[in-house]
Amino acid sequence: MPFDPxxxxxxxxxxxxxxxxxxxxxxxxxxICLVGGLPVALAxxxxxxxxxxxxxxxxxxxxxxxxxxxxxxxxxxxxxxIPLSGFASGLLALCLQNCGYVAEIYRGGLQSVSLRQFEAxxxxxxxxxxxxxxxxxxxxxxxxxxxxxxxxxxxxKDTAQVAAIAVMDVMKVAxxxxxxxxxxxDVFLGVAIIYLCLTSLASLAGKLFERRLAFAQ
Amino acid sequence: xxxxxxxxxxxxxxxxxxxxxxxxxxxxFGTLEVLRNVSLSVGAGEVVVVxxxxxxxxxxxxxCINLLEDYEEGIVTVDGAPSGYRRDPKSGRRLRMSEREIAxxxxxxxxxxxxxxLFPHMTVLQNIVAAPVRVKGVARRTAEARARDLLAMVGxxxxxxxxxxxxxxxxxxxxxxxxxxxxxxxxxxxxxxxxALDPELVGEVLAAMQQLxxxxxxxxxxxxxxxxxxxxxxxxxxxxxxxVVEEGKPEQVFFRPSTDRVRLFLxxxxxxYRI
Amino acid sequence: MNTFAPLIKGYWYLLRGAxxxxxxxxxxxxxxxxxxxxxxxxxxxxxxxxxxxxxxxxFVMRGIPLLVLxxxxxxxxxxxxIDLPAFWGVVMVLSLYxxxxxxxxxxxxxxxxxxxxxxxxxxxxxxxxxxxxxxxxPQALRLASPPFVNLCVNLIKATSLVSIVGLxxxxxxxxxxxxxxxxxxxxxxxxxxxxxxxxxxxxxxGRHLERRVLHGH
Lengths: 217, 275, 217
Fold this sequence. Notes:
The complex is a heterotrimer of chains A (217), B (275) and C (217).
Chain A: H1 5-45, H2 49-62, H3 66-79, H4 86-112, H5 115-123, H6 128-158, H7 170-180, H8 184-213
Helix pairs in contact in A: 1-2, 1-4, 1-7, 1-8, 2-4, 3-4, 4-6, 5-6, 6-8, 7-8
Chain B: E1 20-29, E2 32-42, E3 47-51, H1 58-65, E4 73-78, E5 81-82, E6 85-87, E7 94-96, H2 99-107, E8 109-112, H3 124-134, H4 140-153, H5 169-181, E9 187-191, H6 199-214, E10 218-222, H7 226-232, E11 235-240, E12 243-248, H8 250-255, H9 260-273
Parallel strand pairs in B: 3-10, 3-11, 8-9, 9-10
Antiparallel strand pairs in B: 1-2, 1-4, 4-5, 6-7, 11-12
Chain C: H1 5-45, H2 48-63, H3 66-79, H4 86-111, H5 115-123, H6 128-158, H7 170-181, H8 184-214
Helix pairs in contact in C: 1-2, 1-4, 1-7, 1-8, 2-4, 3-4, 4-6, 5-6, 6-8, 7-8
């Protein structure tokens, strides 16, 4: 019963439709978090109550499961009168969590640039703006690309959890097909291959970015 | 089995079998020849100091002797027994010895490194007894007693229960010497052991090495410390570009060198340090 | 606080769920760690064939979501005839999944030790097993302990996914209460709080370890 070509012929388009949703969700999350992580990282760096708030937010999202966060958004918000679709809830939860992680990546990247670079630039008479844009930021960019790539892969894998709130991503499609047919093996293979392709693509993209943008260490 | 060496470059001043016999070692890193056909003979109780510019292969030579590095050609013999590679008596081919044999032969050669390399998660005493107890099977109490004797010899009796991170560089280096001695090696190799030390800590390490030499240990010392080399060496070997350029007694090499390369090296050294 | 009544009433049930979560994570940690160390050693010392096998295994485990593995083990395992209680089935999947990540952590720890330590051990006549036992592992495991604890936190959060395949732990417990009381916000918040307590405590311990590792030992 595995490798039944007619079954596979019907399965693949369905899976690909689900994959579309997965890709959409992943790209949106990544884009939003790349931008959204910046203010959080900045908030953490300044002294004062803002840093404490940002830090607390990051600890909250890091120490609770994504699934619970999704349930909170999906069921909790609708109870509070703001009914969000499954897709929107999933997106919101994913963004809330990953903005925290991305902010930490940014902070780590900034901190890892040696203090000596700051001192060398200032010694050469650079003003703050020039120092940051020509010396510090290029190095930070080089250093955050690998962890960001890992985060992207993590996001792609986390999107699978939206299946629990009835979003038709590739995982949900797979669940439906597994429950309604006896051909578990084929469905598994299909889903696994799709995710492996997506994560490998993300990994490759990351390496490409590294090569083209990284001119420090 | 008596294989009295007859292949030494110079007629050995010692009549008995040499403690160390290095025959025609060659080593390449890719296209770079790091050691070219190097031969060396060291008698029991002899102190040989190897000097030369950086990149001359001195450190590589030491590391080849106790097979921390592989080498393409040549055989090393320690006290008559091959170490690292042996020649198959039937086919004459050069074979690598088994890991077990190599580990066993390493017990007979002690080495002290430039960066002390103490085990940071063990106390000084544990550092010294670890190998005798776990490799040679010495009883722990015996090993600890011996360790304390060695610590006394290098002047660190009060540091037995300290962790290496709490010791100065010179102290750590002396512990490293004690650790190597704890295995009762037949000879000791010293790889630029004072180069990483602050100048004021160098003296205590050199003093420990002097004591060892006086007690009759066979030693090969790679160093930059020229005055120390003059004091301690029975023989000086000058290496450059992967080969032995000149060797002889200290007075001869330092004051009447017969090659220009040595003369140039010593001149530069004298200019820098006003010896 | 009338709105939080459902939470207060269901609190004991949630607490039991948290206990099950810890049990599951605890049961999975041990085999995951052992397999992780094994995989790391195989990657460093193994033959080419073994190394390729490990690399392939890591590629798959890090490229597909845990949910996919859980779902399909749930469906496929009974078909192979192995009669395993569901609890041990998910523990097995969790272990195999996290072993992959742990192996990378241990491998990094081992490889980050300076070559000088290997040289010193070898020059004293130590052979590989002894060297690993008394010189390499004590140092490498110490170095690896902060990221290891981080993985344990992730493991605790990952147990929430087993609720999607129908196993009972904290997330499932909270879903059950929500279905009865229709108070998702309070209940899921309560569950999040419990997760937070478990994970944050562990994370604090991880930070303590990190400080100890940084300041030498």
